[in-house]
Amino acid sequence: MNRPLRRLGFLTIGLFDPADPRPGIEETLQVIELGERLGFDSAWLRHRHLQHGISSPVTIMAAATQRTSRIELGTAVTPLGAENPFRLAEDLGTLDVLSAVDGVGRINPGFSVGPPMNYDRYKHALYPASHETEDLSYGRLERLLSYLDGEPVSDFEGTMGIETFSRSIQPQSRGLRDRVWYGGGSLGSCVWAGEHGLNLLTSSVVKAEGSADDFATIQRRQIDAYRAAHPAGAQARVSQGLVVIPTDTATPDQAARYRAYADARLPRTREPQGPAGLLFAPDIVGTSAEIADALRAHAGYQAVDEVAFALPFSFEHDDYVQILTDIATRLGPALGWGPAA
């Protein structure tokens, strides 16, 4: 049974021109501001290394906290293999305090583990002396979680001269640990996230793992397994991140480009791709009424009540304005959602 949509978010990659990156980064901040004005509950940043997109989401979110007052900000997802958990815990704690409204932070950090994309091509620059021994497993995330929980990282607490030191990472931000998400794409990773009490980010990619089922069926199986493993059971939070492109107020040129974009990506949805057996969900293009019907029939969507719809990678700023406006004013209400005050 479909639940009314409770929380509506969006995801952006934040592309920019490498010869002049400022306008693209500024447009990303403008998109987040627009999202708040439209009543979206959350805005999420895709984290990319060595690409012309968001390589430093903490920086972007810090800027966004000063230009917004309500919308939650997250990463979907940060590949933790390229991060130092100690330093990241400091940055996230600071950022969450900076974002707080009435003492409650707005940051929702999402992570993945394992070697980051193209890791072998830059691991010597990232870890010159330790790339062969770095722990890129779930243990790296467990370290970060312990730091966010305030567990000691030093054997000294007290005063030296005029300086005071703490045993735990500073600052500590209340509730941040409970807002950590894991980007799961396999059955095992979803179960691990559930066992460790994390929130679950699902996207438009899953691992088929030998199954001949369609994308929606596989995704629903992963969501059910996650909740079965989570202490909160059916109440455990899951956010779905499909690509949906409403055309209600699009110009004929925009609608034609949107359909061409989706058509070009359709072949990869027909069978698992690459050694990892990745299965992609088809992009959903159409009127908000048509998209709402497609979502209500989607087995994965039927199990969630919050989403972070992914904006297409390579569109223009005006396209994102139209898409977000249609999502907030037409698609969201068709799914039972109402904008935040």
Shape: globular
Oligomer: single chain
Summed over residues and divided by their number, the pLDDT gives a mean of 97
Number of helices: 10
Helix content: 25-40%
In what range is the share of β-strand residues?
Answer: 15-25%
Q: Could you give the distance between the termini?
A: 28 Å
Give Rg in angstroms: 20 Å
Strand order of the largest sheet: 5-3-2-1-16
Uncertain regions spanning at least 5 consecutive residues: none
Write the layout of secondary structure elements.
Layout: E1 7-12, H1 21-38, E2 42-45, H2 57-65, E3 72-75, E4 78-79, H3 85-99, E5 107-108, E6 110-112, H4 119-126, H5 138-148, E7 158-160, E8 163-165, E9 181-183, H6 187-195, E10 199-202, E11 205-207, H7 215-229, E12 238-240, E13 244-246, H8 252-265, E14 278-280, E15 284-286, H9 288-296, E16 306-310, H10 317-334
Parallel strand pairs: 1-2, 1-16, 2-3, 3-5, 4-6, 6-9, 9-10, 10-12, 13-15
Antiparallel strand pairs: 7-8, 11-14
Task: Describe what is shown at a glance.
By secondary structure, this protein is of the alpha/beta class.
Describe the protein's architecture and organization:
- With 341 residues, the protein is of the alpha/beta class.
- Helices cover 37% and strands 16% of the residues.
- It has ten helices and 16 strands.
- The chain has helices at residues 21-38, 57-65, 85-99, 119-126, 138-148, 187-195, 215-229, 252-265, 288-296, 317-334, and strands at 7-12, 42-45, 72-75, 78-79, 107-108, 110-112, 158-160, 163-165, 181-183, 199-202, 205-207, 238-240, 244-246, 278-280, 284-286, 306-310.
- Strands 5-3-2-1-16 form a five-stranded parallel sheet.
- β9 (181-183), α6 and β10 form a beta-alpha-beta unit.
- α1 (21-38) runs parallel beside α10, α2 (57-65) runs parallel beside α3 and α3 packs across α5.
- It is globular, with a radius of gyration of 20 Å.
- It starts with 6 loop residues before the first strand and ends in a 7-residue tail after the last helix.
- The model has no long low-confidence stretch (mean pLDDT 97).
